[in-house]
Amino acid sequence: MLVRLSGSRLARGRDVAARRSGASPAGHSSSRLAEAPMDRFVHLHCSSNFSLLYGATPVERLVERCADLGMDSIAVTDRDGLYAAVPFFESAEKAGIKAIIGADLDRRAGRAR
User: Fold this and answer.
1) Among candidates 113, 73, 104, 105, which has minimal Cα distance to 89?
2) Dihedral angle computed from the Cα positions of residues 112, 44, 26 and 13, in that order, rounded to the nearest 10 degrees
């Protein structure tokens, strides 16, 4: 599990940990998010080893971990390309997991051509 320790993401991480332990998150008595079914969680922004400097995990390992956690779908959104699309789709199909294919495109001045 990857954890970002910056700003509101840290607070959100504490809220998730509190919900898992049964405590109320951030001192709140109720939370709409806490009532959401966790078995329907889907990662919509994962980078694979095809994203230089953004991801290190091969798509086969991402799909394998998703299956281990009982998730039914996952998205791979590599940086500036769809290079992992075919191996990701094939791995997900073998594992019985829905593959969501996307891209994280950088349109800053000077980068897009």
Assistant:
1) 73
2) -80
- Tally DSSP H helices, then E strands, for the chain: 3, 2
Domains of the chain are: 1-35 (no CATH), 37-107 (3.30.110)
The rounded distance, in Å, linking the Cα atoms of 107 and 40 is: 32
The values of phi and psi at residue 47, to 5°, are -110, 135
> Which residues are registered as beta bridge partners of 78?
103
pTM of structure? 0.61
* Measured distance between the N- and C-terminal CA atoms of the chain, rounded to whole angstroms: 35
Intervals of the chain under pLDDT 70: 1-39, 109-113
